[in-house]
């Protein structure tokens, strides 16, 4: 098995040109290495881009905040610009696995896994993230929804790599909450990414994305439409949470812990609103 590991930005295209349909990119390896050792994947080459300094950076890039695909959860969690401007991303990154996982797991890897229960995915939808993608012939941008094809699948070609995640300015107050069963963390997890704009005591605008209840993060527009323009009180939040609970009951299969998620949905929505009140 060949190893490709460019050291500079300019060396990346040459490595990508050597990739085949059987080749794989590797980030922190927190999920991929397990699959490799179990024989679930048998690549002819591994490409690691983590030596390229630009892919580890978190920096301002015009109107965007640029996060390198190889930035770890810990690095994201500790960055003051992320904490100030995108608190829901802090919520999600700080809740990924153990400390050891967060020290190695990368934002690019979280996207690349394309897991329906991916912690960061509903947050990236919430923030309208743009994904920078490099191929042998150059760089292009795509929205996060354009990149995810379904469970474990991306729309990228075999010789394209995620290089940076670009977050536009956000006018919403945001939060993310994840609930899950300790016995079945992977399939029973439910994540709520919430963005809120208020006008006095009324909801001026709202964005709500849910993870782990569909093949990709669910944009729950029905719940948004229900509460938009209404007074933000416990009764209206409960009615909004019930819309999510009803969706889960009607659309999630029993074998994917539907009954747990029907119950957990309400609590997750309530907790997401409570987390907006952080200091």
TrEMBL record:
Pfam assignment, any one: CO_deh_flav_C
Keyword Oxidoreductase annotated: yes
Keywords: Flavoprotein, Oxidoreductase
TM ranges: none
Domain FAD-binding PCMH-type: 1-172
Gene3D superfamilies noted in UniProt: 3.30.465.10, CO dehydrogenase flavoprotein, C-terminal domain, Uridine Diphospho-n-acetylenolpyruvylglucosamine Reductase, domain 2
Protein name according to UniProt: FAD-binding PCMH-type domain-containing protein
Organism expressing this protein natively: Enterocloster alcoholdehydrogenati
Taxonomic placement: Bacteria, Bacillati, Bacillota, Clostridia, Lachnospirales
